[in-house]
Amino acid sequence: QVQLVESGGGLVQPGESLTLSCAASGIIFSIYDMGWYRQAPGKQRDLVAAISSDGVKNYADSVNGRFTISRSNAKNTVSLQMNSLKPDDTAVYYCSSARGSLRHWGQGTQVTVSS
Q: By the 8 A CB rule, do 82 and 19 touch?
């Protein structure tokens, strides 16, 4: 019933840009907080960026100024524009939704930044 589907991952060179998208279904999208998380090999899953149902944005210090999160309630999507990518950005990126105790996760999409 609840489904979050990420797209847009791939292989890019350092300094290049990439945009991830997440399409949601099975939830009342407009009342959920949405976020992007990432998990690199051997590391924990960390918050990258979040946008509340009211449109308030929050970024990890490591990506602040380079990444931009946005949402479209009309399209039930949340996006992550990633600029000036670095090798340390390499990870599986996950879309999430949250409201109170309710949490949902997408399947993840691989982003690799390498020369």
A: yes
pLDDT tens digit sequence for 46-94: 999 999 999 999 999 999 999 999 999 999 999 999 999 999 999 999 9
Measure Cα distances from 32 to 38, 53, 86, 93, 95 in Å. Answer: 19, 5, 30, 19, 12
Average pLDDT of the residues of the chain: 98
d(CA 92, CA 105): 12
